[in-house]
Amino acid sequence: MKIKEIIAHLEAFAPPIYQEGYDNSTLIVGDPEMKATEALIALDCTEEVVDEAIKLGCNLIVAHHPIVFKGLKSLNGKSYIERTVMKAIKNDIALYAIHTNLDHVSGGVNFKIAERLGLKNVKVLAPKSGLLRKLITFVPKAAIEEVKNSLFEAGAGTIGNYDSCAFSSEGEGSYRAMEGANPTLGEIGKVHHEKELRLEVIFNVADENKVISALLSSHPYEEVAYDILLLQNKHHEIGSGIVGELETPIATMEFLKKIKILLNTECVRYTNVASEKVHRVAVCGGSGSFLLKKAISAAADVFVTADFKYHEFFDAENKLTIADVGHYESEQFTKDLIKEILQKKIPNFATHLSQVITNPINYL
């Protein structure tokens, strides 16, 4: 199996187009055509992780955090980033990162944390906009079902828990086939009028190529008229953070102690207890302070995340309890998530979870 095939399975789950603009979720080092031996899965890619891959015979490292965020102007080993990249290149090891796109998808990083915390009725906390498109096309009546079904199979027409969603309205189209054309209906040189249906379907931007290909292959006309509109609707299955509910509310301090065990963290930094019991919980793996207002608006009792600065803790204003569990600690189970994705898609491909603790922070 080639490295590009491994990547294709990961990106089918978390399309790169869902990543933040600053991010670098991609194949950072390596030839996508190279045959993959085994994969090592890590939260971070460091020199020690590359050494581990060499020892295990892995020529692919899949990490959550990209080793390269910004462009490198030189490769001479002056930083751990350059040394890591150089060592990977020297040993013919490919480096792939799957970061904020994995954070944003349904079933991604935050859902994994929610699973460990036992949260139910989980929803995206801050849905993203600009990720939906509307396809409008015009189809002769006799071909409408074939075209619709083809579009549905390509991923169009899914809204929340509903699929096969479409709207059609009747009208009349006209055209004149010129010399060299091969019209399905009508004659060369004569204006033809045809009863058509205006068909509208919504699709994810990640599926655009598949949807257009499905349209062109199923539509009976030689030249297919269609429009693609950018929608600003929020995509309620893609976005930052999640909010969910505990099956049974528990005392806040008891919940904080439970977090420490479930997330295997040495330290939980928390603000004043805002409510006696915890029922609704907001979660954001990694740096989540930017979602505090969203967590408050969602009526969360506790917000589990990391990397809050001193003055940001005041912003809770006793409206909820912030539980800062640490960046590494909040995302350490991402390795398990990546392994699960790959095992489900390619169970016979060998994957290893890195045993290197890449957390740069120590606790006394």
CATH topology type of the largest domain: Udp-n-acetylmuramoylalanyl-d-glutamate--2,6- Diaminopimelate Ligase, Chain: A, domain 1
User: Which sequence of SSEs, written as H and E, runs from N to C?
Assistant: HEEHEHEHHEEHEEHEEHEEHEHEHHE
Largest pleated sheet: 6 strands, mixed
**DSSP summary, beta strand count:** 15
Low-confidence stretches: none
Give me the CATH architecture of the largest domain, please: 3-Layer(aba) Sandwich
Instruction: State the shape.
Output: globular
Give the helix proportion (percent range). 25-40%
Provide the CATH top-level class of the largest domain.
Alpha Beta
Number of helices: 12
Number of domains: 3
CATH superfamily of the largest domain: NIF3 (NGG1p interacting factor 3)-like
Rg, please? 25 Å
Mean residue pLDDT: 96
Strand-residue proportion = 25-35%
Termini gap:
45 Å
Q: Numbering strands along the chain, what is their spatial order in the largest sheet?
A: 5-10-12-13-14-11
Structural class, from secondary structure content? alpha/beta
InterPro entries: DUF34/NIF3, DUF34/NIF3_bac, DUF34/NIF3_sf, N-reg_PII/ATP_PRibTrfase_C
Subunit structure: Homohexamer.
Binding site for a divalent metal cation 2: 64
Keywords: Metal-binding
What does this structure look like?
With 364 residues, the protein is α/β, with parallel strands linked by helices. The chain folds into 3 domains: 3-101 and 333-353, Udp-n-acetylmuramoylalanyl-d-glutamate--2,6- Diaminopimelate Ligase, Chain: A, domain 1, CATH 3.40.1390; 106-127 and 239-325, Udp-n-acetylmuramoylalanyl-d-glutamate--2,6- Diaminopimelate Ligase, Chain: A, domain 1; 131-231, Alpha-Beta Plaits (2-Layer Sandwich). 29% of the residues lie in helices and 30% in strands. The chain contains 12 helices and 15 strands. The strands form 3 sheets. The chain has a 6-stranded mixed sheet. It has a 5-stranded mixed sheet with strand order 1-4-3-2-15, with helices on both faces. Strands 7-8-6-9 form a 4-stranded antiparallel sheet, covered by helices on one side. The chain is globular. 38% of the residues are buried. The mean pLDDT is 96.
